[in-house]
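Annex B. Sample input.
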Amino acid sequence: MKTIGNVQSQANAEVFAVASGALPNGKPVIVNSNGTVSVIGETAVSQTIGTAVKFQDGTVTDFASTYDTTNDKGVIFYKRSSQGKCRVASITSDSASYGSEVTFHAADTSQIAVCFDSSAGKIAVFYRDAGDSDKGKYVVGTVSGTSISFGSEGTFENAAVSAISAVYDPTNNRIIVGYQDEGNSNYGTGIVGTLSGTTISFGTAVVFLSSNTGPNSLVFDPTSGKTVFVCRDNGDSNKGKAFVATVDASDNSIAFGSVATFEAGAAEEVRAIMDISANRVVVAYRDSDDSHKGTACVGTISGTSISFGTPVVFDTGRSEEIGVVYHSGASKTVILYSDGEDTGPATSAVGTVSGTTISFATAVVIYSGQTRETLGSFYDPDNKRILVTYKDISNSNDGKSITYTPAFDDTNLTSENFLGFTNAAYATGQTATIQAGGAVNSGQSSLTIGQQYFVQEDGTLGLTADSTSVIAGTAVSATDLIVKG
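Annex B, continued. Sample output.
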């Protein structure tokens, strides 16, 4: 037994495992799926653009999509022949395959918005039902294999709606919907729902902007537990505005903080995403008062308010059909858009958030033909690929997709696979002793006593969490670390 002050290291805090690769002394290690252990590190991943796959013949519009983490499948929703349709996508590194087309609403469908409820393992689909006075309707889908089935249709707004957006709030286990209520002067409105089985029960709808609102985009911030509503205010010169929403799960109520303006000019194609690594909201839009340039800005949440940094141009041409995706493997915000009013190649702008600003790498053309509807793209965390979906105007308006990933440094560290520290150096194939939770590892240097340390994605230790947040332990001397259990 080793004693340091009042801290004791027990022999039963040691784990024995076969080394996969050389293990230096005092290094954090992960447990692999086969039970071996490896050092933590990063591997350079090159940019990849996969092979285009057609998932639907003929004209498709109103794209929306989500990724089902329960079944490890993506689902693409769209309008074809006026009806609401969808297909389940199975993604590989360079392509995607699709299940049979499924109809989720047989009447005239538009304004489709979707979100995945990770607690229920279900997909909620919201839309405008032109067959019933343009009312706001929903269905809940369950993925099984390469297909999806739906429950009975329900109503979330008994009046005409448009500009629909939805997001899942895992903190409160609620679904939040934002929309333009055409039955109430086109005001921007929010409502909270609880999913049970294939039915959603809703609280009372609340107006967040007493004005005619344009496209709404909702994003959930896991750190604050708040949802941000982003929109265009048609009643105020089309300015870009945002509101922080607080949900009360006890009665499915929702309250909004003060308005923040992120664009004083005219903002169109407004979309938002949460950049998890930077803990910031990124809003992308077309600035119609600046030659329709593609523009983005970074928002910081504080309490029930949000403030924005200076807008940054990501495309000096005209950006159409803007979509935003967060690539957690690369810790980057990826903006996808059709570059140009007429030519419209599907294009990617990869952004890095720093503080209250964002910088962009050189834009990359994903598909050089004429495209629209790139806003339906989504991220697959298992394959660390974005599935870029688009309408191929160059080829009969067919629905197509391409897998894409930007260049980044990939890590083998996850939030669950950290095991502990080596107590000596081991060669590959040797049985290594790993000091796990509660043990004291003495293979460190230059630690600050009393300081908590985090495992970094490159295998070093740091005072702050990396994109993958893993606590290493607490220093009790310059060389000794109590391993976090």
